[in-house]
Design goal:
By secondary structure, the protein is α/β, with parallel strands linked by helices.
């Protein structure tokens, strides 16, 4: 039996899982680390924390599984996207990594649009300049820390720093590189035009591979630290959502997944390049060679329900603790007692502003239609329905682009709720299923590692062999038109309040 390793470098911690070639998890380990916020709106991490966590978790899963290191043929790395790692000529980290959720680069985004032009930027990178993306962070360091920038010789993404420490190779792959905003996304290579306009030395950037291509092998030094064989291959891997897509089998046209975690994502595979000229959704290269994915983001998806639970459901939390169950089991039971449309109550989930389709940091959440008849169960259901409608907004933009999924996989905490999955099926009007294996990104990059090592001929073939699905929940025919009527009102709420959000922000 051959084995593959999946390393998932997240914001709160790194999770490493060892799988056999059939997709069975043999052992798992997680190590957490801090995030630093030296100023309001800033977010940084120490790359050495990622490397130490990778070393520890690899050692742990090898020990726990008892698998011979020589049977671990390859590994893949998934990672939080958009983070900036800068190395000097001696490969020393020059400053803490500015990570994806950092918001300090608004001026640099304006600088990019001024120098490049917004339309041209979208045509090359498939996205407008955003504070979260890597390019604006590079310019921020150049503008604000010129001494650091002058010493920089290598620019890497978070997972690619761990790759460098494992292999000694400066390498990245197309899905994660798409989020740097320096990649020519249609042509899957660095954009010489952008680099020239913005005066960035191409030699600082890593070599770009497809996600399932071998980028190197574990070095002798890393083998000694981790317990891996120096013969273990390392493949490109993928950004977190692209890896999750592979881990759920969303690797062919007509397939998509929806994630309800803290934020929410609607992610669809497409064999044909599709770019939204308005920049409402992201288009990135996906982990399948020669294909792309499009995705929309809800900033406060599961966060909305968590906020409501923590603020208004103390009794349910206490009762759940006494019963030894998840508090969401009790809140879901309450929400199920409210009818579709929550007795004419609609929730807009803009607690953290919104990404798709509005790109508006100033919009805020609201309950619309609140009356004296409403009870807590109505508010709970309205929150769940509102988040579902916000994800329908993303799906609607995808449909405009010619991307129309026939099936949907549900992931994240919200995907565990049968009630929420039924809402998704009814609002989207497509079957919604879950996977048996819930390892997500770690499984996804392990699958890519299996393809790179030759265990499977292609990513779709590997997914068919290694991923098993639970039965889908089909749309309930009579529910579909009921939700459609409520959604029509929901869609009007943002436009009706757009200017008021600005007025509120200015107070």
């Amino acid at each position: 039996m051959k084995y593959v390793l999946g390393i998932d470098l997240g914001t709160s911690g790194t999770k490493t899982v060892l799988f056999d070639q059939n997709g069975v998890a043999m052992a798992s380990a997680t190590v957490e680390y801090p995030m630093y916020q030296p100023h309001n709106g800033w977010a940084e991490q120490d790359p050495k924390d990622w490397w130490n966590a990778a070393v520890e978790t690899i050692k742990t899963v090898l020990t726990k599984s008892g698998v011979n290191k020589d049977d671990v043929v390859s590994l893949g790395i998934s990672g939080q996207m958009h983070g900036l790692v800068m190395l000097d000529e001696n490969n020393e980290v020059l400053r803490p990594s500015i990570i994806w959720c950092d918001q300090r680069t608004a001026k640099e985004c304006d600088e990019i649009h001024e120098k490049v032009g917004k339309e041209k930027l979208i045509s090359i990178t498939a996205n407008p300049a955003l504070t979260g993306f890597t390019l604006s962070k590079i310019l921020w360091v150049r503008n604000n820390e010129p001494d650091v920038y002058a010493k920089c010789r290598h620019i890497l993404l978070p997972k690619d720093y761990v790759r460098f420490m494992l292999t000694g190779d400066y390498a990245t792959e197309v899905s994660d590189a798409s989020g740097m905003q320096l990649l020519d996304v249609p042509n899957r290579c660095w954009s010489d035009e952008l680099l020239q306009i913005l005066d960035i030395d191409k030699s600082m950037l890593a070599k770009v591979y497809e996600s399932c291509e071998v980028t190197g092998h574990v070095s002798d030094a890393a083998a000694a630290l981790t317990g891996l064989s120096a013969e273990t291959l390392v493949v490109g891997g993928a950004g977190d959502n692209a890896a999750a897509a592979v881990g759920t089998g969303v690797v062919e046209d007509g397939k998509a997944f929806v994630t309800i975690g803290t934020s929410g994502v609607v992610f669809a595979h497409t064999d044909k390049l599709a770019i939204d000229p308005k920049g409402r959704v992201h288009t990135f290269c996906c982990a399948v060679p020669g294909a792309w994915h499009v995705m929309g983001v809800t900033q406060a998806a599961g966060l909305s329900l968590k906020w409501f639970r923590d603020t208004f459901c103390a009794a349910e939390k206490e009762a759940a603790a006494q019963m030894g169950v998840d508090p969401y089991e009790l809140t879901n039971k309450q929400a199920a007692q409210s009818p579709i449309g929550s007795n004419k109550l609609i929730y807009a989930p803009y607690l953290m502003g919104e990404r798709t389709p509005h790109l508006d940091p100033d919009c805020r959440g609201m309950f619309f239609g609140l009356s004296a008849m409403h009870q807590r169960r109505d508010l709970l259901r309205a929150v769940m329905e509102g988040v579902t409608f916000s994800q329908m907004d993303s799906l609607s933009v995808l449909a405009e682009m010619g991307v129309a999924p026939e099936t949907m996989l549900a992931c994240g905490g919200g995907g565990k709720s049968p009630l929420w999955r039924q809402m998704l099926a009814d609002v989207f009007n497509v079957p919604v299923a879950t996977t048996v294996n819930t390892e997500g990104p770690a499984l996804g990059v392990a699958i890519l590692a299996g393809v790179g090592a030759g265990l499977y001929k292609s990513v779709p073939e590997a997914c068919r062999a290694m991923i098993k699905r639970n039965p889908a929940q089909d749309p309930i025919a009579e529910n579909v038109p009921q939700y459609a009527k409520v959604y029509e009102v929901y869609k009007k709420l943002y436009q009706a309040n757009k200017e008021l959000f600005k007025d509120l922000a200015a107070l």
